[in-house]
Amino acid sequence: MGLVEDFNGYRSKMNEKIMDSDSLIIKRIFNLDTNAYTEGHLDLKSKELIGLTCSLVLRCDDCVKYHLGKSKEVGLTTEQVNEAMGIATLIGGTIVIPHLRRAFEYWEELSHV
Description:
Low-confidence stretches: none
Number of domains: 1
Order of helices and strands: HHHHHH
Mean pLDDT: 97
CATH superfamily: AhpD-like
Largest sheet: none
CATH class: Mainly Alpha
Structural class: mainly alpha
Strand content: under 5%
Radius of gyration: 15 Å
CATH topology: AhpD-like
Shape: globular
């Protein structure tokens, strides 16, 4: 299996276990997260780029992978994603570069799925 399948499989499996814990707080947090990324005053593409750039600056590789996958789903181009990741690296500084490497690798892998 590849990077994308491994990530999505693990994420789905663990999210199911988390939901099975029946924690009202966790369910509310997951619901809030889901609702934040629905169409509103900002379109889905803008929201995914915001999520992607924030995730890179915060250096959350799982979040970056998730938002790259969603960026692909909503039709963002490689050029758009790369430009957003460039801004994130500028804001976050050189400490973001290792995460940027993994993001480029994951985006490339997404093009083969």
